[in-house]
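Posting this for the archive.
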Amino acid sequence: MARAMGLALRTYQRFEKGSLGLDFDKIFSFAKVVEADPWGIIFAAEFGHEDFAFQTAGNQGASLLLTMLRRYARRSGKDIAALDPRSLVVIFGRGFEQISKRAERLNADLEQWMFDETFGDFEEEDD
């Protein structure tokens, strides 16, 4: 891993232990090597929830969240100043609730598909 990131072994060991702090360049390099979401790693470290890095690795969820926030800031970021903190908590909370509901629907659909006994039963067509 150290070699893949272009680091000395000791530097990589310190990076892995977290003794180097949040070094963005090293995090992005590490994420590229292991095909993870670099912002998922950064956010996970920031709020002490390591699983978040794993949960966003496959879909780049944290990077997409940051991308959408950047787009919002460019397009209409000034609108956020008009809202009070309670409104923001409610709005952000609803967005995250929608993510959970969407995941629940997808999981239910997948489970239904997996246990659908008719899947793979194709009627032979007459030539």
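The two ends are 57 Å apart (CA to CA). The first helix runs from residue 2 to 5.
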